[in-house]
Fold each of these.
Amino acid sequence: MAEPVRADEPLLQTPLHAEHVALGARMVPFAGYDMPVQYPSGILTEHNWTREHAGLFDVSHMGQAFLVAEDKSHETAARAIEALIPADVVNLKPNQQRYSQLLSDEGGILDDLMVTRVGAPGHEGWLYLVVNASMKEADYAHIEARLPAGVSLRRKDDLGLMALQGPSATAVLARKAPQVSDLPFMMSADVQIDGIWCHVSRSGYTGEDGFEISCNGKDAPTLWKALLADPEVKPIGLGARDSLRLEAGLCLYGHDIDTTTSPIEAGLIWSIQKRRREEGGFPGASRIQQEIKDGPARVRVGLKPEGRAPAREGTVITTPDGREVGIVTSGGFGPTVNGPVAMGYVSRDVSAVGTDLHLMVRGKPLPAKVAAMPFAPHRYKR
Amino acid sequence: MTTRYTKDHEYIRLEGDAGTVGISDYAQQQLGDVVFVELPSVGKTLAKGDEAAVVESVKAASEVYSPVSGEVVEVNSALEETPGTVNEDPAGRGWFLKIRVTNPGELDGLMTEEQYQEFVKSIS
């Protein structure tokens, strides 16, 4: 049995740190923060609870910021961020949110992020960004260095962020803020919950219906406890967050996507709207438009190993006759699937669903098939 | 019956010239939910410290090392279908394998129950 690695550098804490400790969470270093990997009930129980009821996640380590156009014009702010990402931001409606990627000049992915057109009165020309914790310093530097005059980035390190996910999430939140019931997927609203200002979006990263809720950091513990007081809600750690998003077929930055992968290889073409595909005007556009036209040389696929042995990140993928055709980027046990699941990149000629492949696990070929994703069906509120 | 522990949290419980090998309660707690166990073939010869088995939690795979040298004489095949037994009863039904000990002197280098509990306290 190998010892867990312990980091010696001082770790940052989210506004909910004391809550996790009080709940008996096992805390681990993650992206520079001391974060709960699991609570005493364990990852399997937390995963299944989220699929059957509602799970509450602390995601306050993620970076929240506003992009603000001085001229109070949505188009000014939208054009500024469109120069860095391939999503259509100009045509976002107020309170609408989109998933996108910060791209390098080579069309690689510097980070993935959420962009929302702020809809609150008096905030015309404001975009709300949520970026990965591990990348936020690099992202902010990258964005600031490329903003035109008249557009500025305001980081909001004093905000908390939590996700409420699962089939009971809407009923739970609607007991406190009835208007969230009618919120469509990827739309947001400003609401009061027990007198606390919250920005709520119907989104998440588990494949389930649910919400991400931003509030002032000082209010976060009160809101956290208020939501946990509902018997349908349990706290969920990073361990189950990872198995939930893997079953949902969603990419984890630094694993399934990074500077070496393009959005087209990663199967994220759905996040590049038609106008942007045609017009380009984002970093790496020539490569990405070429890949849309001709198809990329390799693509991200789902993989279903036969038997029960999980294939982890870094596992080499071969054809049954031993030709190396790719690598696993995320893999593990899927509690809802009740078996191993993985995703990775393979040559396009062996990427069709049902293709037989081998995963080299501990030196032995483990038979697997290319599988459609998600592994567990999405249950978003459309 | 004598039980000895390694610093890597395996136990070996001696019954005659054979020992039952598993992981400690502390180890299963640290791992969390066990979802897969890979066992060696019966008849395999292991040196002390060789990889004897693999145990996987939702999060990660870990090696189980042989506490002593010897020959694998039996494995707990039930773990292939119900790996969670390792969490429920690590010292009992959650055993991994039985090994015929070739060099009983190797046991002297392992920790007693009391020494192991002290060791766990010192690292947790």
Note: Chain B has one domain: 2-104.
Amino acid sequence: MGILINENSRVLVQGITGREASKVTKEMLDYGTKVVAGVTPGKGGQEVHGVPVYDSLSQALEAHPTINVVLTYVPPLAVKDAVMEALNYNIPFINIITERVPMLDAAQIHAYARLRRSRIVGPTSVGVINPGARVKVGPIGGVNVDRVYQPGSVGVISKSGGMTTETSWIIRQAGYGISTAMGIGGDFIKGGNFVDLVPLFFNDPQTEAIVIFGEPGGGDEEALAEYVTEYGLQKPIIAFISGRFVDHMPQGVQFGHAGAVVERGMGSPAKKMAALRKAGVLVAEVQHEIGTLLKEVLG
Amino acid sequence: MRLYEFEGKQLLAKAGVPIPKGYYITYSEMGAVGADPELERIFDELGGREVVVKAQVLAGKRGKAGGIRFADSPEALQQVVEGMVGSELLGETVTGVLIEEKAAIEREYYISITYDTVARQPVLAISQEGGVDVETFAKEHPDRLILRRFGPIVGLMPWVVRDAAAAAGFRGRELHRVADIAVKLWRVMVDNDARLVEVNPLVRTADGKLLALDAAILLDGDARVRHPETNFPPRQATGRPLTERELIAQAIDEGDYRGVAGKYVELDGDIGMLTSGGGGSITLMDAVAAFGGRPANYTEYGGNPPAEKVYRLTKVVATKPGLNGLLIAGGIANNTRVDVTFEGIARALEEIRPEYPIVIRRAGPGEEEGLRIMRELAQRLGLDMEVYGAELPMTESARIIVEKAAAYRQKKHQM
């Protein structure tokens, strides 16, 4: 089991001929991911590590109708176009690795994905991994995947890409494995928020506990606290929120009031931690305390 | 990127939002002001009765700090301008002033568009109570500050604004006037890739027209390449000008999209931070602070940058005067090559040959070679360096550097 990707995932990489994308394609293939096609407009007919490249998604789908995951690896200003193309063909899961996608584009992508009922994780995602199914999309885990990612019962959702693996490493060192781990990116506007993904773990029989890594800014952690307060904490959630030093830094000069009036005091790590605690989430004070807390809830 | 009021108003004017007639005067133009009839001409062209002089700083609430002054004669204008330009205001040097005709204000409103990051939609905020205290007001009377989220594909339709404005208490023809302005503000958001467009106050003048008296615009840094036509000079998010080191760091990423190594914020501590990954870097800043240390900077390199970029970043981080320690740390990298990036770091350290202690904790692709490079360097140059891989919890490395830096500081004082 696990969420978002599994044995049946057939992956297409957008921008597959790029330097990073091609390297990651090799890593994914080596791990066991079924990468069946790639798209780079203008480079149709080439191959990347044996994966055929097409000029457009419709061509790729014609040759490989089972494609159900798209990994977006195109430059920032091309992301909107690429994801809209994937949404047009109702690809159920799109993972955007690209960083620095303009906010307007991210908002439009999110709005259109809702209309098409597709699920998006990213931008700025480090990828998703399901060790039990031996499937990973994106650079998550790098080349030495198995050192950190072993099958198990803990789901990981991290705003930070690097900390996805560090968090999973702490879980491994505590003696547990991973059902699915993912980096959702720390962008202000992202396709997959904690509240979008935690319910999937609630419904996943393999997952027994969920670990989230939060960051300052935005209201995603507060929204999760509200969600579990309303719908119940169906499985234990352990959270670590980075960035408390931000609260102790000299305050940035205020600019405009809109942020304050719209977010109404959200955003600071201390407030996020307080909101999550109040909702019954176990909050780790230092990152490696996640291991101790896991042992408490899973025994 | 935050815009100064005069820059923001240029964007508003381009979209057809009415702004007061005004002139922007910069510091460099001020050298000749004493003998220049320029201010007299400006005073006359702005009606010849009374003008307002507004210090161009990025901080809010500048009015209370003396950044907004009035003048009713060319002589008074000259006095105000000379006193203001070059002065310090809210931690910033006033490099320019905006001189505007004084509007006949009947009422002050508030209007803004930004993104609601939870709903992941743009949101319009509108109130009949504008001015400096809108935030306090919104807290006390949330019912009188109306928020309306709207779809970013369709954009802001006039009916959404009219509906919000009516709920906020606007009546009659003003509903249409406010809608007209708000729709134009949305165009400013889209056409310039702004993250925030705020007009506070939007005023109703004696003749019943609406006028944007101020403008706070935040541009999306990730979209600047889409707008080569609006080329605003660089500035720090906090409003303070970039330091020399920050400027050098910023140049690292220019023209080379491979990875990121140019984010650098100078702080006043004594532990240099050469940390990788956004999340890892922040977590390590937390840890250094938690163990009683004071970071000398914030940085994050990542996305598998080439050695050259990390070399340049190391030169910026490790040469800051007064360092008592350097932490080179990150999590278990997913795709950033430890050997490649450490090659750049090693090359810089070889040139700098620091005497202060260095602690390294890193893992990821190429970690064996990367850590070997560092151990070899330490031995060859006789550096005070401890090198760890994944076996050490990342945040433990923060504890070690804080302790070593304290010991080094003490040793320095004894010498």
Note: Chain B has a mean pLDDT of 91.
